[in-house]
Design a protein that fits this description.
Elements lengths: L16 E6 L2 E3 L2 E10 L3 E10 L2 E10 L4 E9 L4 E12 L6 E5 L8 E5 L5 E5 L14 E5 L4 E5 L15 E5 L5 E8 L3 E3 L3 E10 L15 E2 L2 E2 L1
Antiparallel strand pairs: 1-2, 1-7, 3-4, 4-5, 5-6, 6-16, 7-14, 7-15, 8-9, 8-11, 10-13, 11-12, 12-16, 13-14, 17-18
Length: about 230
């Protein structure tokens, strides 16, 4: 995504970016091609590709009517196997759009969720280590940054395709020196030999998905025992 805009406010401080390192050298991907592959009333799909450093990268994207976008990242060697040292996905939000953070592990119990005020001090303020180490998988499959009225969720259902050393951080939340807030997903954080194709799937969802009613803040719905709320 170049930009995601719910409720008239831009959620990205810069386009989502992918940093690839292969053979010990940062790779500049070139020859980018993008084409829309299908369009319906409730969805659209596209495919993009680029290559560099002996690696071909392809992205298959799907955008649905409520703003949810899923992205399948496909990597394969362009020729002989190549050592890939790192692959990082950067999602950067403006300071005013990232006042709060909510994340959850793969366990549904409410006390395993994590909601915080985003730190104002520069540097890493949360990682997957510790916060999510008691779950079946080490990464947080859902992370939301928000202000008082809107948010942006990153999600990933599983770690298929990730090549990681779980002794190191695979997800970092960072306050940059300029004030922006950065989520880095380290899809690859250790050298490995890319012999054939791998796929990594993730996505984004902006909230709210449609305009909220004017009285949404004081509204209360649901039931607690026999007492209506």
């Amino acid at each position: 995504p170049q930009q995601i805009t719910p409720q008239g406010q831009a959620m990205l401080a810069q386009p989502v970016s992918l940093d690839l390192t292969a053979g010990g050298t940062p790779v500049t991907l070139g020859g980018a091609l993008v084409q829309v592959t299908d369009v319906h009333n409730d969805s659209a799909t596209w495919q993009g590709s680029a290559s560099g450093g002996g690696v071909r990268v392809q992205v298959d994207g799907r955008l649905e009517y409520d703003g949810m976008v899923t992205l399948k990242l496909h990597l394969e060697p362009t020729g002989a196997p190549v050592t890939v040292d790192g692959l990082d996905l950067h999602t950067v939000l403006p300071p005013d759009r990232a006042l709060y953070m909510f994340g959850t592990g793969d366990d549904g119990y409410w006390w395993y969720n994590h909601s915080i005020l985003v730190s104002t001090a520069p540097g890493v303020f949360m990682t997957n280590q510790g916060q999510y180490s008691n779950h079946n998988i080490p990464m947080a499959p859902m992370i939301v940054f928000s202000d008082d009225d809107r948010g942006l969720e990153w999600f990933g259902e599983n770690m298929a395709g990730w090549q990681v050393d779980t002794g190191r951080a695979i997800q970092e939340m960072i306050r940059d020196g300029g004030g922006t807030v950065r989520l880095v997903n380290h899809f690859i954080n250790k050298p490995f030999l890319l012999k054939g194709p791998i796929d990594i799937t993730f996505g984004y969802e902006a909230t709210p998905m449609k305009p909220m009613p004017a009285d949404w803040r004081p509204a209360s719905v649901g039931d607690y025992g026999d007492t209506p709320m």
